[in-house]
């Protein structure tokens, strides 16, 4: 996966390539950081539970209580209410991050058992002999503020990562990397050869696959049909624009099953093998053109995977 980073006054661009291992590591660090923050918050809440317990279901201070005690109790109740609201907001954020994490795992090709987003990762460690420090409610609130900020920041970062992964996946689907016929064999390669009809040396701008008449012709990648017509040399011919100045050509078909302007998907049947045009027998002539110039289709077909 490639990420383009633009920095500096001259807006110079650098391309960063992320491997599957790096993506897995990023997700692991994110999950562990969130889990650690939540564990710390839960610990702090438990530490303060004895002091806060009287606020739940216990009557207010009696008439003999001092003004300071009544005000302190009211302040504590307001604090608990505010903390409850914050915890609810964080819970909603975590549900969203769980869903986002699962989508990212699928996009990155990570196996489901490698990341279980609805379970906390394993943690532990030895008990230290350093003195423990109790935190006040205001300090606990500060911790929640920081955790909320981190959750929002991580959410934005994962949104960007999802966009990059989706763009990468879409780009791969638009590269002509699958064979245009499931059956058949390669009868003529790309480059200079002896023309089978003239017997003279000529440049072959594509590759030929021998197959029976009626064999399905498949789109090598997704794109838009820009040509669907009969050509005096190519016979029934179809051309698909895949974007990025890439076009594939399918020639000598017996049938054309798509019209100009149609959106086709990778592997979709677009025609049937035939023997039309300048041809010595049933076969599919397949070309890949970049910026209008024929390039060796084998370079793309070898990228299949």
From TrEMBL:
SUPFAM superfamilies: Duplicated hybrid motif (SSF51261). Residues 203-297 form the M23ase beta-sheet core domain. It holds the Pfam family Peptidase_M23. InterPro entries: Cell_wall_metabolism_enzyme (IPR050570), Dup_hybrid_motif (IPR011055), M23ase_b-sheet_dom (IPR016047). One of its GO terms (molecular function) is metalloendopeptidase activity. The chain crosses the membrane at residues 23-46. Keywords: Membrane, Transmembrane, Transmembrane helix. CDD domains: M23_peptidase. This is M23 family metallopeptidase. It comes from Pelomicrobium methylotrophicum.
């Amino acid at each position: 996966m490639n990420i383009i980073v633009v920095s500096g006054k001259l807006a110079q661009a650098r391309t960063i390539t992320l491997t599957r291992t790096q993506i897995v590591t990023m997700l692991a660090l994110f999950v562990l950081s969130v889990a650690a923050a939540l564990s710390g918050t839960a610990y702090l809440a438990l530490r303060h539970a004895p002091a806060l317990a009287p606020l739940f279901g216990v009557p207010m201070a009696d008439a003999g209580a001092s003004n300071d005690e009544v005000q302190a109790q009211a302040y504590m109740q307001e604090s608990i209410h505010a903390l409850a609201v914050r915890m609810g907001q964080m819970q909603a954020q975590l549900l969203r991050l769980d869903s986002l994490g699962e989508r990212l795992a699928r996009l990155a090709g990570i196996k489901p058992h490698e990341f279980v987003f609805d379970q906390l990762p394993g943690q532990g460690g030895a008990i230290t002999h350093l003195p423990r420090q109790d935190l006040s409610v205001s300090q606990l609130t500060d911790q929640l503020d920081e955790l909320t900020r981190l959750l929002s920041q991580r959410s934005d970062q994962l949104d960007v990562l999802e966009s990059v992964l989706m763009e990468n996946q879409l780009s791969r689907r638009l590269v002509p990397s699958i064979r245009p016929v499931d059956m058949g064999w390669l009868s003529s390669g790309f480059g200079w050869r002896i023309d089978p009809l003239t017997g003279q040396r000529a440049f072959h701008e594509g590759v030929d696959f021998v197959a029976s008449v009626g064999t399905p012709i498949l789109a090598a990648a997704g794109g838009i049909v820009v040509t669907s017509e009969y050509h005096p040399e190519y016979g029934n011919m179809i051309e698909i624009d895949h974007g990025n100045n890439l076009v594939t050509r399918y020639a000598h078909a017996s049938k054309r099953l798509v019209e100009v302007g149609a959106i086709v998907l990778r592997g979709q049947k677009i025609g049937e093998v035939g023997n039309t045009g300048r041809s010595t027998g049933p076969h599919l002539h397949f070309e890949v053109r970049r910026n209008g110039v024929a390039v060796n289709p084998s370079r793309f077909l070898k990228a299949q995977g």
